Amino acid sequence: MNQLDDLYEPNWENTANKLMEYHVEALFVHDQHSRLLTINENLGPTVPAPAFFLGRTIDGKAVCRFRYDVADKTAKRLQELSLEEPSISEFPAKPKYFAEYMALLHGQQYTMGPCYFVPRIVTPSLQVKSLTRENAANWLPHDFEWLIRELDVSQPCVALVHQNIVVSICRSVRITNFAHEAGIETLKEYRGNGFAPAVVAAWAIAVRKLGCLPLYSTLAENHSSQSVASKLGLAYYGSNFTIA
Known about the structure:
Elements: H1 16-27, E1 28-30, E2 36-39, E3 52-57, E4 62-66, H2 72-82, H3 98-104, E5 110-117, E6 129-130, H4 133-136, E7 157-162, E8 165-175, E9 179-186, H5 195-209, E10 213-217, H6 223-232, E11 235-243
Parallel strand pairs: 9-10
Antiparallel strand pairs: 1-2, 3-4, 3-11, 5-10, 5-11, 6-7, 7-8, 8-9
């Protein structure tokens, strides 16, 4: 049985392949031909998208996207190879055609990481607060002062306040009309106390109230973030792979 079978929500087609499409569309700005342009971010300077995105799923289908400046011939070959990628049941496993992808794009750097869906059954275990520009100054410590400039474009933003200061946050860092991607931060001295899972769970509830799906992804080397996903029992639907 597909592990997403029990995650049905009205009006959503929650196949792993569809979730991967929501994921890539949240990560990157696309042109009218579904070519990648830039990172989907409302803050700071515009950052170019990677040359290649591959999302392998537990359904056995892959989502493949290319930056606007990748030659058509190269894009066609990348697409052909991606269609032959097997389904992925666990992370981390490099793509079957990893070497070919790197060679076709003369790649020097790549990223890879697991992708999760936050199901409705996840609920916060600790009391949290919604953080806005209006109330943030009451609780933000020095280490979180950078968050002030993000609050208007990173909503929902949920925080756990401990002894009158924010120690852990989860906010929407990539946003579309269909899905939000989570971004979490916990002060170093407060990690390992269950704060991060609590804010992720509350953030997911807030995202659903907006009529969107809560998605969570991370990098292969970010074991603490993967631990949060494990503690919450998030549904793994695939892995992403990019070449800069």
